[in-house]
Every structure is written in C-alpha cells, then in structure tokens.
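Suppose a colleague, Dr. K., hands you the sequence of a protein chain of 127 amino acids and asks what its three-dimensional shape might be. Before reaching for any lab equipment, you can write down a predicted structure in token form. Begin with the sequence itself:
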Amino acid sequence: NGLLDLQPTERYKAISLQAVDKIAERHPALAPHLYDVKLAGMVFPFKASPYYVDELIDWNCEDVRKDPFYRLVFPTLDMLNADHRAKLETAHAKGDPKNLIRVVDEIRADLNPHPAGQKALNAPKED
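The predicted structure, expressed as tokens, is then:
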C-alpha cells in the first residue's frame, strides 16, 4: 500500500528523430528549428524521453534554444564546427542520399577518431 501501488505503470517510449515533426505539432516553438535538429540528428544520436520533452523544456520561453533542457535533449548544428556544418549543409542541399551518408560518416569519424587505440584494443577477440 505504498506510493508505487497508487501510480499506474507506463511503458517507456523514447522519442526518435523520426518523431520530431509530431513534437513540433505539440510544441510549435520547435517548428522553426526542425531543419537544424533534423540535420544535426543525422550526425548525433537522438532519443529523448517524453518526460524531458513535454515536462522539462520551457516551450513558452522567449527563445527555446536557450532553455537548458532543450540544449541537453536536441542536437543542433551549433554542435558542429564551421567546416563540418558547411559540408553537411552542402551535401544535404545537393539531394544525393549516398553522398549525404558518406559525409555524415566522415564527420562522425572526425568527431570520434577512436583515441588511445579504442578500435583495436576494445574489440572482441577470437579464442
């Protein structure tokens, strides 16, 4: 008869990049930033808790991009350096999906070059 007995259990359902349009419908302050989030989301992994998105982000503030929870949850092009950003935007504008995937892979490799031998030393070994 504790507090846990009174609360219904909900199944956790993460919000993915494919659902950001639905988030923008519920929270129109996101709509002007969809391009930014979707493009950055190609490089950076994106999954968000509905609790963060619906309860913690102040969607009514003057500039939602300055909300600390928004900055923690949503990837933005500001997370990339100018060269990576330009490469990504150019590849996206050209409309060639294969080239875009290649550019995204290059940017990811630059951002995580496997320091300290991670790729070789932190890999499964055959017995």
